[in-house]
Amino acid sequence: MDWPKARAILLVAFLLVNGVLAYAIWGPDRSLPGLGRSSHAQEVEQVRTALAERGIILPASVTVPETPPPMRFLRVEFRPTPPSVLPPNESSSRDLEPARFLPDPDSGALIYYAWEQGAGSRDIRPENRSQVQQVAEEYLRRRGWLPANAVVATYRHDPDRNVAMVEFVPSFDGLPVFSGYVRVEVSSRGVETVRFLWVEPTRYTDAAPKAVRPATEALLRLAGRLQDSVGEPRVIRDIRLGYYANRSLTGAQPEAVIGWDTVPVWRIELESGEVYYVNGFNGEWES
Question: Phi-psi bin for 246: left (phi > 0), alpha (psi -120 to 50), beta?
Fold first, then answer.
């Protein structure tokens, strides 16, 4: 065996490997983000194909968020009639009639039937999302019922009734908190009903941050849950990161403060209006 030649070949091979590793570690930084985006995009395409095989459509227009850094638990509090959100039996404008609210025994929400108290006739197209959202926001602001940290979470149009629903939820640190809401139902004549079940995010808990599972995993779990369903293909409307943990609020005392911890979730909404929450820490379903 020609040992000098073999030694020379091994030396060249080691030099090439070391060169590749050195470039990967100390090479231009701009190559790394590009590689990460490509990997995420490829993973999304693989998931899109897997979903399609199970009758679930993930449109290209739906953005699948990348995995965030580790996150904490978030503490929220519920007050049945928080003065800053819902002034009980009084309006925030002198030219408005006093508001009358009815409790919903099933959810614990307070319901205001605006159409019974003079919603007024307006030329509104419920299928027009931007118009419905504008009407709802104007109405809530005039009444003093739109908290400063509210963000839009859902818009849904019912063509059979020609009524739309827009839902506002609280936010914390730029993320929506889906455990509370203000839901406004709008028809062609204006605001019909307003439902209040508001929670106030207060602080992160002292528990250490935990890794969050990727959104693509949540989508695959949805495929497993819906794979035995029959009928038309399901279409995904939206997937976003937020906080959520459900809690029964029926029977809450008017002055009671109820607090609980929420977890990061991937919220998946279908075109049919169905909404699913996947726990970002353990991948389990949140009811």
Answer: beta
Dihedral (Cα; 45, 51, 52, 54), 10-degree rounding: 160
The residues with which 76 forms a beta bridge, in sequence order, are: 201, 260
The bridge status of strand 56-57 relative to strand 234-244 is parallel
Per-residue pLDDT tens, the chain, 287 aa: give them.
555 555 555 454 444 434 433 333 334 433 334 434 569 999 999 999 999 998 999 999 999 999 999 999 999 998 766 444 455 444 455 556 666 778 888 887 888 888 655 444 567 899 999 999 999 999 999 888 898 999 999 999 999 999 999 999 999 999 999 999 999 999 998 899 999 999 999 999 999 999 999 999 999 999 988 877 767 789 999 999 999 998 876 666 656 788 999 999 999 999 999 999 999 999 999 98
Selection from 232, 190, 247, 220 nearest residue 75 by Cα: 247
Do residues 230 and 255 make contact, with C-beta atoms less than 8 angstroms apart? Answer: no
Kindly report the number of other CB atoms within 10 A of residue 9's CB atom.
11
d(CA 192, CA 184): 8
Residue among 198, 171, 168, 170 nearest 183 (CA): 168
